[in-house]
Amino acid sequence: MSALDAVLNGLATLLNIYAVLILVRVLLTYFRISGMNPLVHWLQLVVDPFLDTVRRVIPTFGGLDFSPVVAIICCYEAANLLVSIGAGVFPNPLAAITSVVLAVVQAILVLVVILVFVRLVISFLHADPWHPLVFTTRALTDVFVAPFRRRVPRLASGDSAALAAFVVLVLALVAVEFLFPVIQQGANGL
User: pTM for the full model?
Assistant: First the structure.
């Protein structure tokens, strides 16, 4: 192993650790921990500048902030790129960019499918609409369900628009899963 390989692998490890720090920072936002806590304050100093940069590029969608997902995927893909270069494999830049874009689209689709599925389950259980979990879930998913509201007939037992949105989103996710290797192979061939 040459010195360059060691440096590139070290940088890749640092990028993977940074991705974990981003995840920890996001998870800590769900707990009531003061920003004056030394650990939280340190995480904010280390992680927030990169997240703020990503937030300027990736807008929120339906009240959902996808910037941590994009930041984590970028860190992992950059680490993989460094490891590939260290191994003597110089990937096609178009293939690397395509891989990052497809991974981001895939991750966002998975998150949206999960949220719409939770909304669907809540609607079939006839939960209290003013419960904070129900209210938040509906607020987050309204942007994805609204296009189906007038086009899909109502069901007596649940939210038919959420069901239609769920089916369309799952089909989109399957299409991305199917097309991911095809597009990746095409980008590698260029």
Answer: 0.72
Residue 115 burial (CB count, 10 A):
20
Length of the chain as a residue count:
190
For the CA atoms of 85, 89, 92, 93, the dihedral, rounded to the nearest 10 degrees, stands at 0
**Cα(65)–Cα(82) distance, rounded to whole angstroms?**
28
Residue 16 has pLDDT above 80, yes or no: yes
Query: Where do we find the tokens 């938040």?
Result: 136
Contact between 182 and 132 under an 8 Å Cβ cutoff? The reply is no
Question: Across the chain, what does the average pLDDT equal?
Answer: 86
